[in-house]
User: Fold this.
Amino acid sequence: MNQIVLAAGCFWGAEKYFSLVQGVTATDVGYANGATQNPTYEEVCGHNTGHAEAVRITYNETIAPLPFLLTLFYDAIDPTTLNRQGGDVGTQYRTGIYYTNVADLPVIQQSIAELQATLDKPVAIEVAPLKNYYPAEEYHQKYLAKNPGGYCHIAPAQFEKAAAARATTPAQYTAPSQRVLQQTLTPLQYNVTQNAGTEPAFNNEYWNETRKGIYVDITTGQPLFVSTDKFDAGCGWPSFSRPIAQNLLKEARDTTHGMLRTEVRSQTGNAHLGHVFTDGPAELGGLRYCINSASLRFIPQEDMEKEGYGAYLSLVK
Assistant:
């Protein structure tokens, strides 16, 4: 687990925002990089202690890499405003990225440079090593969970966006050669993934699989879907409302069989998976990823750790 401390204005809303992100395992609020020891909230607000209201974030780098978290951070703030976020004004409401691992600094600098390239005004985010951090009083911890109607400068839509966001998994999976695929895949798996074949409806391995677990690309092992997003569409093939991350997949126009469809392939393995349709349940986002079982391998929740997918257990609810 890694840690980063982010200052994003009032820490009540910022804490809730980051607590919703997949891959974030713990959050708490406190006072960062000030000139005094063990400050109180009143001292930070009125006695020029130099502390920033901040959120300490513990995260799983595999699921929520730092560039991904920083992108979400920028979405929740005005990155060009100094000492102000929303209606809150003062140095304690400045924006900041405070790192505990010096290896994070180049990543942060690159991220800031990419952000600056999209803006007309200078970025006003403070970047510095974490010199000190003092947890805030208990009544500030998980404040919005305790007080759902409490003040928050972050819009509700941003919370929904944070909860839905998924990062791309690391590029640790590679596509085997055709020779290897011919030797390791069954004829059906090879035909589906390499020739865009289709397996029979209601007569395939996972169409009625209901156990908790993760579905990975049969050709590369890369995680693609989780059971949390699987639903019964009545079509006879595994159906998912979304992938683990959108850029794990690539889409293409498919006009075969006299139909106009959107084909879905795995990004790394270029394996044909199935198609995506817009007739999914509205409450799940409206999409239906109709996927061939033959293009997937299912790893049950209880086997994920030993199979090397323990980092994804937090996605399997």
